[in-house]
Amino acid sequence: MKKTVRTSLKIVYTGGGTSGHRAPIVAVHQALRRLVPNLQAWYIGTVQDGQSADVKTLQAQKVTVRTIAAGKYRRYLTWQNVTDLGKVWRGYWQAKRLLKELQPDIIFAKGGFVTVPVVRAAKGLKIPVVSHESDVVMGLANRLNAKVARTICTAYPIEYYRGLDRTKLVWTGNLIRQELVEAAAKKAVSASFKIGGRTVTTDKSLIVVLGGSQGAHRINELIIGLLPTLAQQYRVIHQTGAGDIEWLNQKRLQLTRPEQQAYFPIEFMSVDQLGVVLKAASLVVSRAGSMVSELVLFGVPTILIPLSTSAGGHQLRNALVLENKKAARIINEGHLTARGLLAEITKVLTDTKLQQELRAGMQQLKEVSGAKKVAEILIQNAR
User: Fold this and answer.
1) Which domain holds residue 103?
2) Quick one: which of 1, 96, 212, 337 is 20 to 30 A from 295 by CA?
3) What's the domain count of the chain?
């Protein structure tokens, strides 16, 4: 195996579509900067990816952003699959020209449809590729890239992955930004902090609701309906996603004043806000996408509501891994009701023994050095 010491490295990162495919790239870049003194890095994504907060963070850390066309394959019959095929080919030729120009030593592919033309172009140019999968069910793009990738890093132990060349699989854990690792390691919980310009005090138990980077309308509806009950005993921080923030802000104004004071809707939390909030949380209600790794890092008692329409059922499979370790409670979305959700919230927050069991279960899956492990694998595989 090659040494993981290198004084210079040229790398191209690619991954996009959602924050779950972009934010981990920031974590890997942070780790590589600590290992390689002379690091040159580029990010290849779509125009939409380039406008995201994650990519703006990469730019602030001296990563040059380039964009290409990319088409998405949908798992149902639609004319868009035909038109998007043209985008895939255009993206392939754009990626090939870029890679010829940049001459990177290695490609890191995180997932999302934009990675496919980049990885195919890398194959033709004999540029090594390392990929990473955040879920138990590998996404379509990563499956298409699997034959090209030299190493496939996984968020969960490799026994959970099916139909893949196991000689390529390496369990690294998920890729979590250094700011969150440091926040989780702190012993003290902030007595108060700001969310959406308002002050949250931690004198009451704090429920944090996370719908993923794109929100979760069904969960949002139930939470706002339960607010009159929840606000009597708890404070609620609610990451709503862009689609529902205005509606929920209007709903908040219809609550009584004490209920308004207990409820903190926010469209999306920055990494620093998320670290403070998860450190203070007594309970998290969440979808079961890549965010699960941050919840495991902080060891917060969690109720997972997997998205029933997630590709390949990956959210349910992610959640089942935690449930099997007694690390989380699951509510099937098909059985989700306001009464059932309130009963689960009440049970977790009033059962100290259950809270301890959930924290112990999460400890079994906790992995804080995933980004460093991936950075070392990138160095080992670079040409």
Assistant:
1) 8-176+368-381
2) 337
3) 2
Residues 226 and 105 in one domain: no
Three-state secondary-structure class, residue 213: coil
pLDDT at 29: 98
Say if residue 77's pLDDT is above 70.
no
The pLDDT assigned to 86 comes to 78
The pLDDT value recorded for residue 85 is 73
Rounded Cα distance, 127 and 118, in Å: 10
Residue for token pair 């109720």: 303
Per-residue pLDDT, 2: 58
In whole angstroms, what is the distance from residue 112 CA to residue 49 CA?
Answer: 11
Asked whether 115 and 145 are in contact (CB, 8 A), the reply is yes
Residues 6+ apart with CB under 8 A from 30: 61, 177, 178, 371
DSSP 174: -
pLDDT confidence of residue 78: 62
CA dihedral 338, 341, 344, 347 (to 10 degrees): -40
CATH for 76:
3.40.50.2000
Q: Which two tokens stand for residue 54?
A: 């994650």
Whole-structure pTM value: 0.89
138-151 burial, b at 16+ Cβ within 10 Å, e below that, comes to: bbbbbbbbbebbeb
Kindly report the number of other CB atoms within 10 A of residue 85's CB atom: 12
Average pLDDT over residues 51-76: 87
Residue type, 267: E
